[in-house]
Each structure stands twice: as C-alpha cells, then as structure tokens.
Amino acid sequence: PAGPSVTELITKAVSASKERKGLSLAALKKALAAGGYDVEKNNSRIKLGLKSLVSKGTLVQTKGTGASGSFRLSKKPGEVKEKAPKKRAAAAKPKKPAAKKPASAAKKPKKAVTAKKSLKKVKKP
C-alpha cells in the first residue's frame, strides 16, 4: 500500500474544511471517499487514526467521545495535552472523599424511607 498514511489523510481533510466547530466523522469519511480512500474497508483504521491524533494533540475533539463527534486542528499541540490530564486529576481527587460521605449518609435515610413506604401501603387497603 503506497501512499500517505490514514492520519495524514485525516489531518489534510480536517485542515481543508472551513467549519468553525470542526469536521464531523461522517463528513470526514465523505471527504476521504472523495479522495479515493476505501472508507468501508478501512473504517476501523479511520477511527484508530482519529483517536491517536486526538491523544497526540494534533486534533481537538469539539463534540462527542471516542472516534465519534467533530474534530478540528488544535492551535498548540503541546498545550492541549497538558490541560486534559490536570483537569481529570483535579476532578478525581475531590470526588472520592465526597462520594464516601453521602454514601454512608444516604444509607441511613433509605432504611427510614422504605419503612415509611411500607406503612403507607398498609394504610391504603
């Protein structure tokens, strides 16, 4: 298979689009098919290529998750890579202690609520 790699074709197609919010997966496949690329046969390669370009920081995913959604070229590849892990790490740390407190507090009212429900059911008939 001589010719440019899938990731190169994807970056060219995304850079050629003038969409403000990025090029969608469907539009990307149409652009690749118009360029003579067999989209049906290499569907998984396109998805893997998109994911790798997003993880490297070459592309930014404006909508969706994984390989679906919209993609556009990032302005600074290194900057995008640094921001994402910091947000995840900062968000993950507070969630753990906060999750433990409501879980123990939530268990106590649930018992009372179930008892109340059963009392209501008994009163109705």
Would you kindly provide a written description of the structure presented here, covering whatever features stand out?
It is globular, with a radius of gyration of 24 Å. Strands 1-3-2 form a three-stranded antiparallel sheet. It is built from four helices and three strands. Residues 80-89 have low confidence and may be disordered. It has a domain at 6-73: Winged helix-like DNA-binding domain superfamily/Winged helix DNA-binding domain (Arc Repressor Mutant, subunit A, Orthogonal Bundle), CATH 1.10.10. By secondary structure, it is mostly helical.
Précis, in short:
Residues 64-125 are annotated as: Disordered. The chain is mainly α. The chain has helices at 6-16, 25-34, 43-56, 77-123; strands spanning 23-24, 59-63, 70-73.
SSE topology:
Layout: H1 6-16, E1 23-24, H2 25-34, H3 43-56, E2 59-63, E3 70-73, H4 77-123
Antiparallel strand pairs: 1-3, 2-3
Helix pairs in contact: 1-3
Region (Disordered): 64-125
Main location: nucleus
Protein name: Histone H1.10
Poorly predicted residue ranges? 80-89
Reported CATH architecture of the domain at 6-73: Orthogonal Bundle
Share of residues in helices: 55-70%
Q: Which strands sit side by side, in order, in the main sheet?
A: 1-3-2
Radius of gyration: 24 Å
Order of helices and strands: HEHHEEH
CATH class of the domain at 6-73: Mainly Alpha
- Cα shape: globular
Mean pLDDT: 76
Oligomer class: single chain
**Number of H/I helices:** 4
First CA to last CA: what distance?
Answer: 76 Å
Which sheet architecture does the biggest sheet show? 3 strands, antiparallel
Tell me the fraction of residues in β-strands, as a range.
5-15%
In total, the number of strands is: 3
- CATH structural fold name of the domain at 6-73: Arc Repressor Mutant, subunit A
CATH superfamily of the domain at 6-73: Winged helix-like DNA-binding domain superfamily/Winged helix DNA-binding domain
Structural class: mainly alpha
